[in-house]
Amino acid sequence: MANDQKIQKVILIMVLLIVAICLWGCTTENKQQDRVESTNIRSESSENQKTKQLIIVTGEYAPYTSEQSAGYGAFTQIVEAALKESGLESEVAFYPWARASEMVESGDAWASFPYGYVNEMAQIYDYSEPVIQGPHKFYYLKSNEKLAQEGADFKRISDFTNYTFGGANDYWYGDKAVIESSGVKVEWANDVDALLKMLYAGRIDFLIEDYRVAEEAIGRLFPDDCGAFATLPNIASQHDYYLIISKNYPNSQMYRDKFNTALQTLKNNGTIDRILRENGLEINQSEDSR
Which pLDDT tens digit goes with each residue over 187-237? Predict the structure, then answer.
């Protein structure tokens, strides 16, 4: 009986040793597998980052950017050419302007365009190097003879103290309160189309817009009465256009640096001038359109 008990103890010890060895082997194998999987995940993440498409959002601002234009407009083509030059892929999506700027601020999109430089916006977004330039002009109705005479020497919005200005958000001239503080009456709208309709209806006396954008919109909105609009002699601003860039998008600064470097290459080799010509925008920027 004593021998039987000893034999049972020996068998039990052997079984426990075998179980312990098996468990140790499984744990070691799992740890090795975890290390392999972790390495694969890091490698896959790195590879995805290299090929990731940058999310870029924009809105309707023809002829620079428009969902209805071939190649989405000249500015869009320049941005995509610069990203391609820098080895980055992009996906451009169109949204209302307010939504586009919100997406950039939150980091849901890397950048949006085209924007002027506004000090208040620079607290929220980073800016690219300037992409292209175009003069913004004072637009009014030819029938407003009083403004035509008095406004001949006007150079800034604050000169129009007896007139009503039409403006929109995210323009270089600032927000409504800033303009009103200069003593000018102000009406606000969402975009250039709405502002031109307000001007035509007599709700405002003048607005400021890029001449390429204004001429496109006037021809589209008022094809039978384009001659009703005019511009004052002085240019409101010789205006630079930029990308606004998210401060919250992953690796945003690295992408900005790559974009800026590629953009300079396109300026130097004539690509930007070629894109503008191909889109019919080679007009001398200082030339009066009206």
Answer: 999 899 999 999 999 999 999 999 999 999 999 999 999 999 999 999 999
DSSP H helices, the chain, are 2-51, 74-85, 97-106, 119-122, 145-150, 176-180, 192-200, 211-221, 252-268, 271-278
Query: Rounded CA gap, 105 and 93, in Å?
Result: 16
pTM: 0.76
The answer for residues whose C-beta is within 8 angstroms of residue 143's C-beta and 6 or more apart is 228
- Yes or no: say if 198 and 187 are a contact pair by the CB < 8 Å rule: yes
The span from the first CA to the last CA of the chain, in angstroms, equals: 119
Question: b or e along 192-221 (b: 16 or more beta carbons within 10 Å of the residue's beta carbon)?
Answer: beebbbbbbeeebbbbbbbbbbbbbbbeee
Would you state the structure tokens that stand for residue 263, as one six-digit string? 């953009």
* Position 130, amino acid: P
Residues 272 and 290: their CA atoms lie apart, in Å, by 26
pLDDT digits (tens, 9 = 90+) for 229-244: 999 999 999 889 999 9
Residue 254 burial (CB < 10 Å; 0-12/13-18/19+)? exposed
